[in-house]
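Reviewers of the previous submission asked for a worked example of the structure-prediction workflow described in the proposal, so we include one complete record here. The input consisted solely of the amino acid sequence. No template or homolog information was supplied to the procedure at any stage.
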Amino acid sequence: MADGEEDPAVFSCRSLPSDPRLMATVTNAYLGTRVYRDILHVSGVYNGAAGDTHRADLPSPVSVRMAVPGAHSLAETFTLNTRTGTFSHVLQSADYAATHQLYAHHSLVHLMAFSITIQRSPYTTQPITVQLQTPFVPKSRDLELNQGPDFQGAHYVYGKTLVPEVEGGPCPTVHMLWTPVPPALTLPGEEQERSWEFLTAVAESEEEVKRSYSEGLTLVAAGSLHSSHVHAWAALWRGCCIDLEGPLPLRQALYGCLYYLLSSIPPQGNSGFLFHGISPGGLSNGTQGEDYWGHVFWDQDTWMFPNILLFYPGAARAMLEYRIRMLEGARRNAREQGYEGAKFPWESAATGREVCPEEIYGAQEIHITGDVLMAFEQYYYTTRDQKLFREDGGWKLVGAVAQYWCSRMVWSEQEQCYHIKGVMPPDEYHHQVDNSVYTNAVAQRSLNFAADVARDFLVPVPEEWVEHAKKVKVPFDEERKYHPEYDGYSPGELVKQADVVLLGYPLMHPMSPEVRRNDLEVYEPVTELSGPAMTWSMFAVGWLELKEVQRAQSQLNKCFSNITEPFKVWVENSDGTGAVNFLTGMGGFLQAVLFGYTGFRITRSSLRFNPALPEDINKLEVTGVSYLGNKLKFTITKEEIRIQVTASAQDPLGSLLEAVLQESGQHFPLCEG
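From that input alone, the workflow returned the following structure tokens.
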């Protein structure tokens, strides 16, 4: 970075947002909280039955704020450093600086920690005292907490959640150890500087919580707890980065989106716990009545997953494994509605049973089942990981989804095709409609993928899969040359969010550029301006496909009204309502750059690319793209595209990559380096 150039990955301010929901979050794949919030959440730990199930609130020992009462001319700075995954608060006076650093350890996922450092200025000798203010009380409305004996200087509580998700189901147990926080810390007159470290360990067994706390203490003694966390984040960024020569707000938005999304994924290698998916507001949110209670929606599979897959296929696999573990719940959902196979819930928590508090969505917004399978398809074609499908449950899930779609379709004698009736499309302003074009197209795609995998595995393809895929109705208006949203849709009717435009991307449903343009032009003016944040990203991708770059940019610019200052936390709706730390909107925004500017498309036989850069972007670098076990770096300018293989696949068959220019047919072998 040039001298004096602002670092797009560091967000600093002098005062905090007045709305506490817009505070920075510190999260790893297992623990999460908002800065200065009195609760934290544990992945997969929910309390409450069915539609009332929500992330269980655990009291947060890391909710601590420094203060120096009576001090004059104190300068205060609050900073979120996305490169190091660390939030800091600095109090600076002429006599001293006090620094508070807070983080959820990225690789030791059972640990959260904070430190306080007081450093005196030269020539001062008086003791310096900093007060620590905390609302912490070891009580929870969601867990029956009991006090255990202290362990290595830490206090200890443990307890079960109060109400299982399904009758007779398990109530998870949580164990927590934390370093007691004194009301104040003093740097004696004879010392120049001192740091104090405070640990919190959370796990679902006494053995694991004690092991994690002890490991933290060992690293504290070696002076390397925070540096090991920073090292893990540095490795994360080395393997995955999107940067560009262009406007600072765009670069900041990209770093912010990547930070919040990467905070949610499991660390590389064996993380030692089951991953429970990503909810729209992440682990830091999801208490009762907030951010959809921490449930997992299509937001994970459609909006967040493609970005994670392209950089970290291991983390993407963990997201799919969550869906595989929920398969029995999904089968039960289908049976209860009178269908075969597996119907994934609109809202999922710990069991895969439907936990949406409002019945209409669970009953009608069935495209979720196809959305889940599309994530499996993208993963299969990007990694060729047959083990997930053959041995780890993926093929069972694929077959169950195909079975569901066949049983959900009804034959229309009149139209001589299959219909899917009584659904709610992604546009939730309409319900009980027949033949939602998105739902039917995603069902068709599910069936085609299931048949492809069966052929790959030399398994006989059920005739009904082929028949239903070939003959399902995908509404199309031959006269106007566009896709009506559902049977009976009239152009001009208000639409809540991206729906038909998703046919072009991510569905890649076959259509001419004329039809793609017509879909964009029909739906753009009637889509709710203050609707969910991911919508405009998809219009941007559509215009980029058609090389209408400035038109795409005007759509993407609408997203900035969902990004709040100073920590780049997204709100679901531009009026500030809905979920906060809205990872769904961030996922859509990242896809507009990662799949829009580059033109990346995952197909059965290749990773296609066809870049289109706006005028104010001179260069785009995408580092760490994973394809068939290789790591690639793409550098795109207005004049050229460079592809570098930064790491080759371990499997010798996986490393035979080449770049092919479609128009000329030229082939360029790609070797490491």
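The first helix runs from residue 206 to 221. We consider this example representative of the routine output the project will generate in years two and three.
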